[in-house]
Amino acid sequence: MSIQIKPLTPHIGAEVSGVDLSEDLTNEQFATIREAYLDRMVLVLRDQHLTRDQHKAFGRRFGKLHVHPMNYARTGDPEILEVKTTARSAYTAGDGWHTDVTCDEFPPMSSMLYVTETPEVGGGDTLYADMYLAYELLSDPLKEMLEGLTAIHDGAIPYVGSYKSTPPEGGYPRNEHPVVATHPETGKKVLYVNSGFTSHIKGLKAWESRAILDMLYKHIAQTPKLTCRVEWQPNTLTMWDNRCTQHHAVWDYYPHSRYGERVSIIADVRPAA
To answer: Which one of the listed residues 40, 66, 68, 98 is annotated catalytic?
Structure first.
């Protein structure tokens, strides 16, 4: 059976069928998935039955696996990030528009979330937004103003501010990246700031930086044409290109539970203009 790619929206997202990720992929199968990943940015693969080792093996086809900054003690399996929400949770991971771990010097190029438990009453979808299109929709004068600007991305914003975790000695990662980056494989420009990690734009007054960032965040959150919506079912793996997307895990299922495990792949290069 050949691999089938079914788009979710005109710009972003696709459901992929005809492939079993628990088996070793042929080079041809992997090339098909990788091409779809670069083209559609978000791929949804349903009815997958994976062990942790199989999940990680698929991730390694794309590159070296990432260890999340909050797991600096490297407890358990450091290459697996558990994403668990129950009635007792103080928060759910990713409840707000963001790009994963942009506080790192080399943020993940991709993340792969494998969900095995979904809320029995429905809910718990994830929204994804196309940052190519987010940039394209800006006016030319605004594009010109943003190009050349650099923003600070600070891990303390979510990990201490939202999640109330204890930082490691020396603090969580804090790095600067261009406000407008160029995707290293497609060569297309992306809007590369996010409300989860970006603290401010360098060289601007605080109120100038806040006004520009808030305007861009509003643009992302209030432009539906940027998005696709993934409805989770048990044993679904969704992977996304972290270099050109943002996502928002919707916590609309309290007091029910959702459980998944995430593998992320480290980028080979830093975000660059």
So the answer is: 98
153 catalytically annotated? no
Identified catalytic residue from 68, 100, 177, 258: 100
The secondary element (H helix, E strand) that includes residue 16 is strand 14-17
**Are 83 and 261 contacting, i.e. CB atoms less than 8 angstroms apart?**
yes
Q: Is 256 an active-site residue? A: no
Place of tokens 């660059």: 272
The residues pairing with 113 across neighbouring beta strands, listed in sequence order, are: 238, 262
pTM exceeds 0.70: yes
pLDDT in tens, 67-108: 999 887 666 899 999 999 999 998 888 889 999 999 999 999
Helix intervals (H) in the chain: 27-40, 52-60, 131-136, 140-146, 156, 206-221
Q: How many CA atoms lie within 13 A of 268 on its CB side?
A: 5
Look up 247 and say whether it is catalytic.
yes
Query: Which residue from 270, 247, 251 is spatially nearest to 100, judged by alpha carbons?
Result: 247
Nearest to 268 by CA among 67, 113, 62, 30: 62
- All structural domains of the chain with their residue ranges: 4-266
Which of 153, 177, 183, 262 is labelled catalytic?
262
What's domain 4-266's architecture?
4-Layer Sandwich (3.60)
The pairs formed by 202-208 with CB atoms below 8 angstroms and a separation of 24 or more are 202/149, 202/150, 202/151, 202/152, 202/176, 203/149, 203/150, 204/149
